[in-house]
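Supplementary notes for students who missed Thursday's class. We covered one full example, reproduced here. Read the sequence, then the structure, then the short commentary at the end.
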Amino acid sequence: EGAKLIELTKEGKKFHALVKRGNEYTEYITDIFVNALGYGAEKFAKQIGIETGLYPVKHQAFITKRLPMLGKEGNILDMVIDRRQYKGFSSIYGQQLHETGQIIGCASPMFDSQEASQELKVTSLEFLEIASEIFSNWIPELKNVSFQAIWSGYYTEPRYIIDPELGLFVGMRGHGFMLCQYIAKLYVDKLLGKETPTYFDKLKLKGEGIAETALK
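Structure (token representation):
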């Protein structure tokens, strides 16, 4: 905790990671280094001569105040998704949290280039407008409900790169929370020489990849 990776080099089969913690610097030498650094992964991949082609894309999210259950028969509202390309966004989606009844929602930009490496501290008016319009159209009762919080983060695009030979576990495109635990198991299985599904090799840097629609 509180540590920051400063530099990554590779000599032969050994990785050298320079880490800063407070005012102290420590060099770690290891046979296995897993680059799972999210939007910062490309920087350190380049330091050891790997070009991933990844880039960070700003995505925005909101959460409402507490609400009664809005789903069928008094249950929570399941995830709803609108995949129309509309007003600069390619999808709007959200769901209700069981613990509090709050609705958490996001919107994906239609064109990644417009949001690549954008400032995270600023929420766009376009996002607020599209989130308000779509969700209140779905559920008219939400028209008078306020946002409790709004925030931004980076999705790493344009594709998964899961390559144990190169130490890459990157490009999860916002799916990491849902899929990373299982993919991490496959990653370890591969390192241990165990059998993995045929699609796993497609996720390598030089692999063909898999379509996002294959996960739906």
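Commentary. The mean pLDDT is 88. The longest strand covers residues 147-157. If anything here is unclear, bring it to office hours.
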